[in-house]
């Protein structure tokens, strides 16, 4: 190390300048030691940061306000989004009926795809992790086609404000436990299958997509039905959890059958077929069909009007964070 020299040996001072206890003498002087370079290898980097929606990296600090207005739009939740492109707050200039319908259906698929993707690494068994990931990918593919019919798919997915999304409130509900996820999937897949089956049988801008997507949604619905039967007609614990999930999400189902501009379907006919299909599955699973209203405190159709529940703001901030933090980035 060149001209560096070790210090002369001397007694080691005791902590806090206190003398040694009785019976102990002062330690012998240290011998001179050479100076060594820093040891290479693994360095302690501290403990892992606990994942929390209110925190980003350790250097960032809290991102959600602790009081009032917890359901914040992404620009208020994300840290310093000024470097990203301007948010997309409105639909494209050609605000036609087809665009409105494409946004509604595309947002449904996009948001539910993200919710199902949150199960990656957390599903109860490996087989279900693969199944939920495949369903999420199917929905993401549908969302890309639908959003492309309304404008630039990336801008519509990652740069719109919360109020500009037109998805159902049902699909944005948190995953909860596995029974909660299955109940949400049962309700939505039954609706989506009937809708795409109707769209595929007639001419229109959505017929080509519906003809392909109806095969995917048939699998989604079958998967949800099989798990509803297994959980509902299983143990006392699984039955109780499935019943709680069915009851909790029932109030969000009425919104699915509100008329959507640009969709040439009969909402009343879809609703009757949906009720028959879902009721049959619940009864086979020894579950009680909820008797409460199928609309919540907000008017049915609120999601289609841009009014969303509190968890949606946090989910959207997480979904849009990477794109807004690195505008223009490509793989």
UniProtKB/TrEMBL annotation:
Residues 33-42 have a biased composition (Basic residues). It comes from the Bacteria. GO terms for biological process: phenylacetate catabolic process. Pfam families: PaaA_PaaC. Residues 1-44, 71-94 are annotated as: Disordered. GO terms for cellular component: cytosol. Transmembrane segments: none annotated. PANTHER family: 1,2-PHENYLACETYL-COA EPOXIDASE, SUBUNIT C, PHENYLACETIC ACID DEGRADATION PROTEIN PAA. This is Phenylacetate-CoA oxygenase, PaaI subunit. It comes from Streptomyces griseoflavus Tu4000.
């Amino acid at each position: 190390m060149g001209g560096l020299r070790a210090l002369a040996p001397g007694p080691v001072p005791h902590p806090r300048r206190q003398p040694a206890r009785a019976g102990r003498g002062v330690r012998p002087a240290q011998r001179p030691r050479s100076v060594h370079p820093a040891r290479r290898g693994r360095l302690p980097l501290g403990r892992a940061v606990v994942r929390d929606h209110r925190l980003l990296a350790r250097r960032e600090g809290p991102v959600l306000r602790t009081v009032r207005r917890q359901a914040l739009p992404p620009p208020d939740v994300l840290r310093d989004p000024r470097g990203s492109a301007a948010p997309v707050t409105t639909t494209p200039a050609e605000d036609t009926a087809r665009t409105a319908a494409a946004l509604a259906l595309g947002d449904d698929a996009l948001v539910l795809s993200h919710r199902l993707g949150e199960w990656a690494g957390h599903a109860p068994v490996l087989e279900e992790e693969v199944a939920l990931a495949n369903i999420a990918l199917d929905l993401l593919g549908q969302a890309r086609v639908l959003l492309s019919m309304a404008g630039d798919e990336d801008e519509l997915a990652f740069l719109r404000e919360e109020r500009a999304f037109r998805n159902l409130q049902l699909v944005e509900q948190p995953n909860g436990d596995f029974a909660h996820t299955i109940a949400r999937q049962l309700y939505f897949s039954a609706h989506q299958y009937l809708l795409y089956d109707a769209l595929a049988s007639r001419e229109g801008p959505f017929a080509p997509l519906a003809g392909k997507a109806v095969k995917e949604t048939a699998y989604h619905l079958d998967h949800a039905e099989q798990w509803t039967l297994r959980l509902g007609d299983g143990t006392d614990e699984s039955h109780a959890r499935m019943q709680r999930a069915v009851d909790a999400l029932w109030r969000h189902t009425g919104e699915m059958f509100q008329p959507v501009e640009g969709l040439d379907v009969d909402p009343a006919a879809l609703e009757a077929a949906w009720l028959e299909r879902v009721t049959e599955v619940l009864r086979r699973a020894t579950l009680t069909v909820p008797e409460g209203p199928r609309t919540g405190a907000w008017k049915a159709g609120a999601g289609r009007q841009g009014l969303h529940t509190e968890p949606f703001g946090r989910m959207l901030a997480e979904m849009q964070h990477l794109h807004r933090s690195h505008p223009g980035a490509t793989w």
